[in-house]
Amino acid sequence: MTKKITFLGIETSCDETAASVIRENDKGTADILSNIVSSQISEHKKFGGVVPEIAARAHIESIEYIIKAALEESKVSLNEIDGIAATAGPGLIVCLTVGLNIGKSIAAFSNKPFVAVNHLEGHALSPGLENNIKFPYLLLLISGGHSQFLIVKDVNKYEQLGTTIDDALGEAFDKTAKMLNLGYPGGPSVEKASKLGDKNFFSLPEPIINKAGCNLSFAGLKTAVLRESKKIIGNDKLKFNLAASFQYTINKILYKKTKIAVEMFKKKINTSNINLVVAGGVAANISIRENLKKLSGELGFKTVYPNLKLCGDNAAMIAWAGIKRFKKNLLNNIDIEAKSRWPLDENAPYMKGPGLKL
Ligand code: KG4
Ligand code: ZN
Q1: Architecture of domain 6-130+310-327
Q2: 284 lines ligand 1 (CB under 6 A)
């Protein structure tokens, strides 16, 4: 029997301070021995978004406690841990540095291997914590900072098929929530408000829907929501209708673009067994899950979603990416530094800014 690897993961890339201990199991997935996430929702609520300096200070205040709690809950001592993984990017440098530095220090004083994890790889591999899913698979990564279609060929091997040319999907949800005064965090509050509204009431734009393969764009939709929101101040019924129409428009965009991404995937990878993994914070949205499940029924592919608890930022997915990289000997020295930008596919064209041709 081969030894089952155990890792401590640390995550501080944005507004969640998180630590987790996980161990490989016989099923090819992981036993999550602890998974502590301390959200800073109350700190950022009054500003309606994440304030980097406040986030960094909150990480500094709680990181030691969170790591201790994760170790204690797991009932695994530091001696029994095979390696430490910490998020090194992309994200807010002031935040990343907190978890990265403490991860490097623990690795140095305990003489353990260290893995600097790309947060996006954490999301990309996260379904593997619970499902023994085989490479290659198609990934729709939708979070607060990123929206991409990628082929996940293996650990550390990604090919980008499409990306947003402006806002990330989570950002569009967060901004819509702010414009409609629905509260923070934005995604879940828009989802809740949508249930009370008529999704057909407002006709909103679907930017670049007929262009550019499976690239995405949400800025024009956001501007349309802003324009309509100014006309309906004080009318709750219309506010819910606007939230519902926004979410419905998102679903129409994702339906069409995912269909294109599946076709692109089929052309590149010769397989009839297609798995679509939807990961990142926005993958917690039930209407999006149901919408893509419907598409999967039509096109005959399988959808895989991480458990709701593992969609948002957490350290179990960082520990899992750490184990996967450790087993491929993709280790890092402890002089590695945090990176604010770190694409999974380094060869993909940069899709933002002036001069973009679609
Ligand atoms: O992956 P994540 O936790 O952090 C980043 O890496 O960005 O994603 C956070 C994003 C936020 O924009 C949040 O509003 C969105 O995920 N989100 C949702 C839902 N839950 C979280 N968006 C739509 N519906 C939800 N239920
Ligand atoms: Zn994330």
Answers
A1: 2-Layer Sandwich (3.30)
A2: yes
